[in-house]
Amino acid sequence: MKKKFIALLxxxxxxxxxxxxxxxxxxxxxxxxxxxxxxxxxxxHETSQNKFAKVVDDVYALLGEYxxxxxxxxxxxxxxxxxxxxxxVDGEHPVVKVDRRIIDMLLEAKRMYELTDGKMxxxxxxxxxxxxxxxTKGIDEPWNAELPPMExxxxxxxxxxxxxxxxxxxxxxxxxxxxxxxxxxxxxxKGYAVEMVAQxxxxxxxxxxxxxxxxxxxxxxxxxxxxxxxxGIENPTGEAGYIEYVELEREAIVTSGSYQRYYIVDGxxxxxxxxxxxxxxxxxxxxxxxxxxxxxAMGDGLSTALFCMSMEDGMALINSIxxxxxxxVTTDEVKHYSSGFSSYITEN
Length: 348
Ligand code: ADP
Ligand code: MG
Hints:
Helix content: 25-40%
Oligomer: single chain
Distance between the termini: 52 Å
Bound molecules: adenosine-5'-diphosphate, magnesium ion
Shape: globular
């Protein structure tokens, strides 16, 4: 009897201390502009600012590593990255020994290519770099803004075969077999990095966190109170504010839109998501496409791909994958949803 009583008392003590720790956790947030050329925001629950700051240090250190590894333009001392893979040495791409995190990301990107029937293609760099240059010039000198000549785009499109990314998993090397091809991971790497960081947090038991890198949002568990995270989806019409609110617990939400990056030629907007079929900015009648699923990597890949697909094809793709939902905002500012999206929607 006495033993039972002591055991019960012990259990009660443990329960109370767990409750107290849970309750005394507060919400903290931090932001930075150091990664992936965009704003990073981390929100988390800890018992002290110090504890939170330590976690954020780890998150930033990881994001810094991913940022360097997945940079397609700049090389960094002491590491081989995507820029090293993209460069030419004596007219050929070198075989480059890389960090495992490059191999894993590229393998995942190849799977996304298969899944999206080639709509999200990280081997589209030769075409995307032409658009990038014309867009940059058009933004810097709007009076000289021009469209890239179609012949130039078509010539570049001959060098976008994803099978020419040769990966040797054992040796941990990557080689681009076509000297005129280039990698561009802008549609995928940021979401992939966010997913890796969120998984790291979960692996050390840090739930009740959200990582948001430039709108690639991944929640890692509900708040200590048990409440979910209220997340706004930006209004893609250019008006300030949100067009929809969703509640998330352990999901990613990623949006691709024509309103984010564009330039203007003869009064018409040309945005940054290129349809591999037309080689032009995708015109499927959307302002934005948002994806909710359990991986920010998949969310990033799918949001770009669905932006390049008819709604019928996009809907069929979404319905073929478990646990993935989508919202399309069409140019007439109407919202369209996949069948399970409404279960995430909430009034603010
Ligand atoms: P954001 O860059 O705003 O997060 P996305 O995830 O949709 O938006 O990615 C757009 C970027 O991806 C472009 O800037 C370009 O670098 C690249 N990109 C554009 N179209 C494609 C495509 N069809 N397949 C793969 N990458 C693309
Ligand atoms: Mg994307």
